[in-house]
Amino acid sequence: xxxxxxxxxxxxxxxxxxxxxxxxxxxxxxxxxxxxxxxxxxxxxxxxxxxxxxxxxxxxxxxxxxxxxxxxxxxxxxxxxxxxxxxxxxxxxxxxxxxxxxxxxxxxxxxxxxxxxxxxxxxxxxxxxxxxxxxxxxxxxxxxxxxxxxxxxxxxxxxxxxxxxxxxxxxxxxxxxxxxxxxxxxxxxxxxxxxxxxxxxxxxxxxxxxx
Length: 211
What we know:
Residues 3-121 form the Response regulatory domain. By secondary structure, this protein is of the alpha/beta class. The chain has helices at 11-22, 39-46, 62-72, 90-98, 110-121, 129-138, 151-161, 166-173, 177-191, 196-205; strands at residues 2-7, 27-33, 50-54, 79-84, 102-105.
């Protein structure tokens, strides 16, 4: 059972999300918060696997709440899935930079939403390469140095930036998925990235991946 914490300042949206999530046999809502400042205490109380985080809230927004959560629960924190109205929202980009595992549009269909929760709960990142590329473009490129990567690590990073899964990367390179996981783990370690999403952002901001 995947436990979900819903964070949104609008009660109607929280109710709608709860209805969608609780209708699934493998998902359950363990708590709700109306503001980012309530997240850390609720996470400690309910131990969710995934936090659905509204990005724009009046007192503490999703960026600050994500940053505070990851600092307060450094050991195995829940995955943060940002929920937003606009995919080109600068708030979304900043939330991804500080550690969110992906984002989801509020207009997403119910089946897309529950699948997104399952994806991040399984440890994968929910990437939208085009949106991340467009957002990264606004922040310029080449200003941040990329550590030395092996040829294979560099190849894996380029394919991750295209949005390929580990299985798809394995097929592309003609190697096993465990080999891909090893190379990706090395990439994350060298970049100091928490997950695939942060690795892709670093790749774009350094100019390593062409826009």
